[in-house]
């Protein structure tokens, strides 16, 4: 019991030290979010330009893009390959968590660049192969209302995001510390296939869970050195968060959603494995 309390105390103070940085990060994200007031229209225009713009939009650390992209796809205004590009580029909570965890700006920039390249190239490859016959409607009016981010007054919004991420961080960090204490770092790395070519596959499966807790978990595992950079790329590339929930919400549209999810997963695994072989 003493060890558990000590571990919880350490996790609490580790998270407490990150709160000021998280406040600054979410203040910046709120500013970005409110400069991009027409998210659905922005995403619908990507259908004309393809996966490259989808990858660029997905790279912006904005909580509603994957959900908005899924809604547009379900309405027929976004091509499947472009939706895959948005999903692959999305990093959810990874950037603020990695910043708070002490990851270098070089590592974070490398992550964003690698995910953008993977999303763009993967999207174009899928458009020319798997999804080459799929079409979108660009000449009809678009009426989609999205409130995925719960955007409102600045202070409650920023404090709410900071508190939510801090709680996730504390829960994940405490769980990781307890597991590390009980199992040992070497054995945990073995369970997560540490050093194995199959680690990106396992992390990609974790990324499919529709929760930002997965991006927190994967980021913490990477910062602690438990998973490779390639595994982080694979896990975050499948981690489209609430986008999957929106995509599967309507039963009649699930036959169109499943190929998109499968393509996202396959591209993430292949890309993450290649990155692990080339970079680590």
Write the layout of secondary structure elements.
Elements: H1 2-35, H2 39-49, H3 51-59, H4 65-74, H5 80-89, H6 94-100, H7 105-128, H8 154-183, H9 185-191, H10 199-207, H11 212-223, H12 229-238, H13 242-247, H14 254-278
Helix pairs in contact: 1-6, 1-8, 2-3, 2-4, 3-5, 3-7, 4-5, 5-7, 5-14, 6-11, 7-14, 8-9, 8-11, 10-12, 10-14, 11-12, 12-14
Q: What is this structure, in a nutshell?
A:
This protein has 14 helices and no strands.
**Percent of residues in β-strands:** under 5%
The secondary structure category is: mainly alpha
**Series of secondary-structure elements, N-terminal to C-terminal:** HHHHHHHHHHHHHH
Low-confidence stretches: 138-150
**In this structure, how is the largest beta sheet organized?**
none
Form type? globular
Number of separate helices: 14
Query: What proportion of the residues is helical, as a percent range?
Result: over 70%
* Terminal Cα span: 38 Å
What's the overall average pLDDT, rounded?
78
Count the beta strands: 0
CA-atom Rg in angstroms: 19 Å
Describe this structure in words.
By secondary structure, the chain is mainly α. It contains 14 helices and no strands. Helix 5 (80-89) crosses helix 14 (254-278). It is globular and about 60 Å long. Residues 138-150 have low confidence and may be disordered.
């Amino acid at each position: 019991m003493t060890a558990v309390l000590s571990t919880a105390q350490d996790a609490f103070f580790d998270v407490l030290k990150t709160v000021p940085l998280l406040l600054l990060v979410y203040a910046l994200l709120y500013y970005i979010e409110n400069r991009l007031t027409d998210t659905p229209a922005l995403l619908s225009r990507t259908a004309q330009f393809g996966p490259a713009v989808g990858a660029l939009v997905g790279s912006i650390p904005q909580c509603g893009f994957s959900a908005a992209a899924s809604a547009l796809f379900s309405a027929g205004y976004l091509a499947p390959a472009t939706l895959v590009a948005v999903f692959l580029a999305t990093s959810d909570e990874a950037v603020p968590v990695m910043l708070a965890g002490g990851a270098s700006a070089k590592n974070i920039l490398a992550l964003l660049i690698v995910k953008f390249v993977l999303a763009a190239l993967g999207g174009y490859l899928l458009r020319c192969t798997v999804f080459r016959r799929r079409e979108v409607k660009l000449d009809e009016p678009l009426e989609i209302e999205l409130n995925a981010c719960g955007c409102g007054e600045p202070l409650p919004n920023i404090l709410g995001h900071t508190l939510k991420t801090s709680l996730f961080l504390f829960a994940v960090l405490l769980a990781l510390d307890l597991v590390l204490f009980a199992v040992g770092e070497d054995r945990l790395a073995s369970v997560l296939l540490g050093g194995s070519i199959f680690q990106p596959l396992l992390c990609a499966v974790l990324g499919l869970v529709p929760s930002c807790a997965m991006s927190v978990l994967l980021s913490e595992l990477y910062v602690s050195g438990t998973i490779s950079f390639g595994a982080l790329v694979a896990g975050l590339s499948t981690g489209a968060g609430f986008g999957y929930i929106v995509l599967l919400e309507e039963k009649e549209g699930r036959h169109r959603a499943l190929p998109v999810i499968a393509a996202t997963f396959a591209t993430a695994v292949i890309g993450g494995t290649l990155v692990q072989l080339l970079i680590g």
